[in-house]
Structures are given as structure tokens and as C-alpha cells.
Design brief:
This protein has 358 residues and is an alpha/beta fold. Helix content is 53%, strand content 12%.
């Protein structure tokens, strides 16, 4: 039987996915806390630039979680650490990793074209998130990494990022620009000149010059990036990587989740568990006996309405939960208060792993 408790004890990566506003960040933090309570050395990483992870862990407003792991002061058997992705810093670190020497690294890092890529290129944020995941997974300080991904539409970009990098490196135009014998030192070869002249009509010539300098400096680093992208892809489909889908019992959100499950299946990735937040309580029908008449009739009406709401939610969720094994679906009721500190996370963790105390 698959259960969240089993995943927390056995996996090395847990990726939390789901739509925005379903409690995904809080769920990821609670899972990480529970795993550390069970004796594991856990790092939870958020890819969402908002402060939700800091807030969930009770950090002061002026103490933000950064790009380097910070240990959380909490009484557990293991350790709990947290990271918030900084795309630019992570990209810089990757360049230094694969540059043959510091001079070449500096030539790239100070290049205006590279800085635009690092700060705004579509897909750069998602790829750097994968890079951070890979980095943390190979960090000997941790034996479990819990990932809080962006909402599902962006999470798909997150999952496809390794393949996009390899496609970019294999693109014909890229190869033209970086082919050593193609004339980069002589302002690229004939095949690229027409393209660059067209670009120069749209942007300034200095931008084109920066691009040429960037590709020249990048020459020789492709295999390192390609190899890393393949390694990241392999990590995502590894047996010790689990995917936990977080959702709420609402039609539009469940439809979004179902579509995401199909997308994962196309990549040969299965959802291992589902967490359903904000579930309406269900009351047994035996509690209605004798309440239909008299002074207690209004209470009977309320109970009937509650049962109807709960039954409707179960129907909505059936498309997601029917094919998962017992124990893999965890339903979390509406909580009394928002989770905004470690005590709140601990309470949520008890719902996530019922009867799962080691």
C-alpha cells in the first residue's frame, strides 16, 4: 500500500504539484517537517518567488529564505532546511561550474546578452529550478528534497525544462553560431550573417555584438549543460522520486489536476499520492435518525445539506482518486486557522500522515 508516510520514509525526492491557491506550499512544508520528525535530513525548496514558504515556517518579514539552504530551528529527530530559488544566482553558479576557467566564466557573466537571458528568458526560471533540485539532491547534507513547484501550467514548463535545454543546444541556428570553424572570430560565418543582419534591424547592433560575444564565450560548454539536463531528466523519472498532487474538491481545480496527471503519464511519470485540502466533513446517516421532526428538525436539515456537499465533493474527486491504491489519497478538512507557523505545520502533518507515527 502506498501512503504519504511510506513516501516520506523511502523516497529521496518528493515533487508537490497542483494549481495555484490549493495549499501546495503549505503542504510541501508540512511534509518536509513530518519527514524530519521521522529522522530524515530534509530540504524543502520553493520555486514560487512569493513569501508563502517563509510565512508557513513562521519567518520574520525581514528574514527571507534565500537561495542557499537555511536550517530551521525545530525539535525533530532529523533536520529541516529550506531554500527559495533565485534564478539569476543559480544560473551564475551553473556557468562557473562548466566554464573551463574563471576568465571565460567572467566573460559570460558580465555579458549583457547573458544577463538578459538569466533574468527574463522564457523557461530559464524553470530550468534553474531543475538545476537547484539536482544540486540539492546531490548535497550530502540531505537525504530528502521536497519541491514546491509553481502552479500546474508552469509546473509543466518545470518538468519539460531539461528537454528544452537539449533541444536548444541541438538547434541548427545555435550550432551555426557556435561552430568553431564557422567564423565566430570573424563575426560568424556566412550562414549566420543574414540572420544577424535581420536581427540588427529590430534591435541595436550592440545587442547583436553582445550575442556574438556570448556564443563565442559559451563555446565548449555545451556538453556540460547537455549532460546535466539529461541527469536532471533521469532524476525526475527515477523510482525514488515521487509526485504528490495537491488539489481542492472544486470542479475547475480537479479538471486542471486531471489534465496534469495525463501530461505526467505521457512522460511516464505517475502520481504517487493526492492531497485534497479544504474537504467538507461528512456525517454518517445514522446521525439523522429521529431528527426529521420536532425541535431538532433544523439540525437534520443542516446534516442533510452537509451530507449532500460531501457526496458532491466525492463525486468531483472520483476521477482523480479511483485509480490510486488505498492510503494514497489524504483528505484534509477545513482547519480552524491558517497555517502560519511551525506549530500549524505540525498540526497539518498529523492530518497528512494519520496513524503514521513511527
Amino acid at each position: 500500500m502506498t501512503s504519504l508516510a511510506t513516501l516520506l520514509e523511502q523516497q529521496t525526492v518528493i515533487v508537490c504539484v497542483g494549481a495555484g491557491g490549493v495549499g501546495k506550499t503549505t503542504t510541501a512544508a508540512a511534509l518536509a517537517l513530518e519527514a524530519s520528525r521521522r529522522g530524515r535530513r530534509v530540504c524543502v525548496v520553493t520555486i514560487d518567488p512569493a513569501r508563502r514558504l517563509s510565512d508557513a515556517m513562521g519567518f520574520d518579514p525581514d528574514r527571507a529564505i534565500g537561495n542557499e539552504p537555511q536550517q530551521i530551528d525545530v525539535a525533530v529527530k532529523g533536520e529541516l532546511w529550506a531554500v527559495m530559488l533565485d534564478t539569476s544566482t543559480t544560473f551564475d553558479g551553473l556557468i562557473r561550474t562548466y566554464a573551463p576557467n574563471e576568465e571565460q566564466a567572467q566573460n559570460i557573466l558580465t555579458n549583457d546578452f547573458f544577463r538578459n537571458i538569466a533574468d527574463s528568458m522564457s523557461g530559464a526560471h524553470e530550468y534553474m529550478a531543475m538545476e537547484k533540485l539536482y544540486e540539492l539532491h546531490n548535497d550530502e547534507r540531505f537525504d530528502l528534497v521536497v519541491v514546491d513547484t509553481p502552479p500546474t501550467s508552469n509546473a509543466i514548463d518545470f518538468l519539460e525544462a531539461p528537454d528544452r535545454i537539449t533541444q536548444f543546444l541541438d538547434h541548427r541556428l545555435y550550432k551555426i553560431l557556435v561552430t568553431p570553424n564557422g567564423g565566430l572570430a570573424r563575426v560568424v560565418n556566412f550562414a549566420a550573417q543574414g540572420f544577424l543582419r535581420t536581427v540588427a534591424r529590430v534591435v541595436s547592433a550592440s545587442v547583436v555584438d553582445d550575442a556574438i560575444e556570448f556564443f563565442a564565450a559559451f563555446d565548449g560548454m555545451e556538453e556540460g549543460f547537455r549532460g546535466r539536463a539529461v541527469a536532471v531528466h533521469d532524476l525526475l523519472i527515477a523510482e525514488d522520486t515521487a509526485f504528490v498532487l495537491v488539489t481542492v474538491p472544486r470542479n475547475d481545480t480537479v479538471d486542471d489536476a486531471a489534465a496534469f496527471i495525463e501530461t505526467l503519464a505521457e512522460a511516464d511519470i505517475a502520481v504517487d499520492a493526492i492531497v485534497v485540502n479544504r474537504v467538507h466533513p461528512s456525517f454518517g446517516s445514522d446521525r439523522l435518525d429521529g431528527l426529521d421532526d420536532g425541535a431538532l428538525a433544523p439540525f437534520s436539515t443542516v446534516l442533510h445539506d452537509s451530507q449532500a456537499v460531501a457526496a458532491g465533493q466525492d463525486t468531483v474527486l472520483a476521477t482523480l482518486t479511483n485509480e490510486l491504491p488505498a492510503g494514497a489519497v489524504v483528505k484534509i478538512p477545513f482547519l480552524d486557522t491558517d497555517v502560519h507557523d511551525l506549530d500549524g505545520l505540525a498540526s497539518l502533518a498529523q492530518w497528512l500522515t494519520p496513524n503514521g507515527t513511527p
